[in-house]
Write the C-alpha cells for this entry.
Amino acid sequence: MPLSVIHNLTSLAGIVAIAAAAVAVIGLLVALSLAIRLRRVRSDQLLVLGDHREDLVAHAARLQGQVEALHQYVEDMAGALQDRMDTVEVRLDRSIAHRALVHYDAWGEMSGHQSTSIALLDETGSGVVLSSIHHRDQARLYAKQVTDGSSEHELSPEENEAIRLALGRAGDRAQRA
C-alpha cells in the first residue's frame, strides 16, 4: 500500500471518516437489534390480538366485554344451581333418613325372635313403622303412620323402641329379648 493512503487516514479528514464509519456500524447494529425486538413484539402482539387488526386499547375493551359477559353467565348459573339445591334439600328432608329394626319374640315363645318392627322416618321424624308378627302357623303385618316421632294409633313397646332407635333417642341396641 502506498504511504500516502495511510497518511490520509491519520489526517483530520481520515480520523473523521473512521469515526463516521464506526458510528455508522454502531447505528447499523442498533437498528438491527431494534428490528429484531420489533419482530418479537409483533409476534407477541399477534399471539395476544390474534388475526384482528385492532390496537391494544380496542382489544382490551373487547376482552373486558367478554369477561363481563362470562361473569354474568356464571352469576346466572350460580343462581340456577342455588334454586336447584334448595329443591333437592327439600326433597332430601322428605326421604328416609332414619331407620331402625327391632327383633323380638311376640308370643313369649322360644321361637328365635322371628317378629320384627322397623321404623322408616324422614328428617322430621315422620314416616312409617312396620311390624311383622310371626307365629308358628301365621304371620301378620301392621303398618302405622308416624308424624314427628309419634303416631295417632297406639304403638307397641317394640314399635316405640324402633322409633326411638331410628331417631337416636335410645342406646345402640338393635335387638331386644
